[in-house]
Design a protein that fits this description.
Elements (H helix, E strand, L loop, with lengths): L1 E4 L5 H12 L4 E4 L11 H4 L9 E4 L2 E4 L1 H12 L10 H28 L9 H24 L11 H15 L8 H10 L3 H6 L6
Parallel strand pairs: 1-2
Antiparallel strand pairs: 1-3, 3-4
Helix pairs in contact: 1-3, 1-6, 4-5, 4-6, 5-7, 6-7
Bound molecules: glutathione.
Glutathione binds next to helix 1 and helix 3.
Length: about 210
């Protein structure tokens, strides 16, 4: 049985849960990072020395990093769904997954920590302005991409690029900041929200 270790509220854990739901993949969830299941315990650090979720245990195969886990699950169980076999089409899916994990993730961190987590370490007004501007810049790139493409990130087919970008758009919309008008992003978000798995793990009230 596939075992997913991680808090169900974590955006990176939700990528894995959404992927499992799209693939109708049986799994169980151990809510590491909540209650007594500490990410700093020796038991957890033996699985991921970085002390971060998600981690999976797939019949003894241990893997961390949410995007790597999603790729692994789609390759093993998707039969071409969510992630094409090696090809230019796949390269474009992975391009957006990498952009999400590097450029987009880095741009939202300060504003998210300040405005949603209310972190005392993230309350510098000018750094917050810079953070919001960086996040808005990347959302503008996404808007221009979706306005010229679609209906999904890499064209006609829903893929893992939509799982990782969809959760990112959800975070953007759920964070209380002045939102620029992004009609193509809004239409994309509404399209994704028609999927039961996104309503359960993405557009579910959590940022
Ligand atoms: N690059 C990692 C990042 C994982 C990550 O940042 N996980 C967060 C939750 S979203 C975490 O475990 N934070 C530690 C904590 O909550 O104590 C991935 O994509 O899996």
């Amino acid at each position: 049985m596939l075992n997913i270790l991680g808090k169900p509220a974590s955006i990176n854990v939700r990528k894995v849960l959404w992927t499992c739901a799209e693939l109708a993949l049986p799994h169980q969830l151990e809510a590491w990072g909540t209650g007594s299941l500490s990410l700093q315990s020796p038991q957890f650090l033996a699985l991921n020395p970085g002390g971060l979720v998600p981690v999976i245990d797939d019949d003894g195969f241990i893997l961390s990093e949410s995007n790597s886990i999603c790729r692994y699950l789609a390759d093993r169980h998707g039969g071409g769904r969510l992630l094409p076999p090696p090809s230019r089409e796949r390269a474009l899916v992975e391009r957006w997954m990498d952009w999400q994990a590097t450029e987009l993730n880095n741009s939202w961190r300060y504003a998210f920590m300040a405005l949603v987590r209310h972190s005392p370490l993230h309350q510098d007004a000018s750094l917050l302005d810079e953070g919001i501007a960086a996040w808005q810049h990347n959302m503008g790139l996404l808007e221009r991409h979706l306005a010229g493409a679609g209906p999904y990130m890499t064209g006609a087919t829903f893929t893992l690029a939509d799982v990782v970008i969809g959760l990112s758009v959800n975070r953007w919309k759920a964070t209380p900041l002045p939102h620029a008008a992004l009609p193509a992003v809004d239409a994309y978000f509404a399209r994704l929200s028609q999927r039961p798995a996104f309503r359960e793990h993405g557009n579910n009230g959590l940022a």
